[in-house]
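Known limitations

Files may contain more than one protein. Parsers should not assume a single record per file. Below, a two-record file is shown to illustrate correct handling: read the sequence, read the token line, then continue until end of file.
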Amino acid sequence: MKRKIGELILIIFFYLLQVTLGRVIAIGGIKPNLLIILPVLFGFLYGKNEGMYVGFFAGFFYDLFFSGLFGFTSLVFVYIGYCSGIFYQKYEETEMLIPLGLLLAGDFCFGFLSYVGNFLLHNRLNAMYYISRFILPEVVYTLLIAVILYKPVTFLNKHLNPTDKRRISKVD
């Protein structure tokens, strides 16, 4: 329960960072997507269920401020958290390239699905322009921010997880 509340506080903190500092740290009109970092990291660190839980609430908060279609981002973030959770227990927490690769793929898929929902269905067919002008710069910028935030989030994650001692005592 302590971890769930801590995850919600972390989601709200990242949401507030994205809403308040998003315009300040924007480069050329491109803002990093801070909320997509959380489902990838928690899915990678704790499995499919945690990735889906964090993805739902991160997507919910993203939908509150940024999205015109309520629920779309929550659904996409749930899938991203689930796909990240597939790699749970296959790699160690110190691996940084796997979560960054998952973040790259997840952010690109989210950007492309946003293009499909917002522009392609409205007969704006220049997909390569949208990919090169908006999606790829956002993916790169989000990856750079994720490199900076990876260690602090995993540090907080260790302190929010009191179940490690219980797991050891249950196995013995």
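...continuing to the second record:
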Amino acid sequence: MHRRHTNKVVFGRPPACHHRRMREDARTRALDKISRLGTEPGSLVTFWDQATEVLQSAVPHYTFPCWYTIDPASLLITSHYNPFMPELPPDSLALEYYSDDVNQIVDVARTESGISTLHEAMNGDPSGSPRWQANVEMGGDQEMVAALRTKTGEVWGALGLYRETGQPMFDAAEKRFVQEAAPHLAEGARKSLLFGEAVDPEGPHPPGLLVLTSDWQVESSTPGVDHWLDDLPDGDADTGQLPSVVLAVAGRALRNAHGEHPAEVAMARVLTRSGTWVVLHGAALQSRSEPRVAVIVEPAHPARIISLLMAAYGLTERERDLTRLVLQGCSTAEIAADLVVSPHTVQQHLKSIFDKTGVRSRRDLVGKVFFTHYEPRLRDNERRIQVVKPLRGGPVRTFPDPAQQLGVLSLVRPYDEDTRPAARESSG
């Protein structure tokens, strides 16, 4: 949610109750535009801005949406974008990760529908929700939270939409539109994060980016792409021979762009000569008259949170896997089923994890991981937005000081021991 600001854009009642009576063909056109936006890699902030313009016509809302990127491995927030609120208030993050409330992003992301309104979650009376109380203080009343989940099930972002007191409730047609748009918004976020890492690398072996012309000539590329081209089967960067998988993905992207399913994602997974798996993404570019296509190559490596948990806290492989499921909001029974162990074994592993990380509950564990490794990423992304740099995904890769290396929660957690809300579960 966002704070009030001087140049407030008031949510006005659309003519003839537009938000209730918007014709189905108009929403179809809006959905088609969002799907096309999601296919072309570029700046994530630009993508959010363009998607906001379309959303305003399809689902009228108060001022500006809150856009988030999410680490699909942990379902923790990695960035927030709202031009009227350059910095997400610490209280908002405290409510998200320490309060016992409804409409929290991780909970919405785990539902089958992937969408929730605060009023519905509180059975029509949100007054008892700390989240609603905070929203009212910042000028809003209604809140809709939607997970941005790809068709393959990965959550790459979340969307928060708001309305002021006295405005019509978000209706079924509007929620259905957001649900249908969510996979395209998720793909757009994923592609934009990949594009940003390719053009502004953060670590070794970042994704590589190629832009090809319609006659398969390389128009431009990022410096690290030669590493991937040489490692792909039948590729040779020195002679200019492109790997066949690159040409196949590029061709499929161009066909999709001019076919019946322009928003269909062109992807391929292939084993390299060195024995590692990589994933290729193809997207037709629409900015010029001559058809061009971008191909992004990325390592199909394990999620960053996996190595981070082992390095920062000395967790075993099984403890690491269990912690990842705790971060995702899984119950004891769900964890036991996923890891094929007994609930008692889950509890024993949890006790060991709590000892190693210095916490006493699941809630504390989630808060510690977020505020130690993800909030620094979120704050850095807020600064990067201001200086027009690509946004980063995942937790921070390096630690600026020994205290953060050890994950000392007392340096970053928003509540003192005696004032933080009670955890939902102390151990189970």
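Parsers that stop after the first record will miss the second one. For reference, the second record is described as follows. The beta strands are 66-71, 76-81, 115-117, 142-149, 155-163, 208-213, 218-221, 266-271, 277-285, 292-299.
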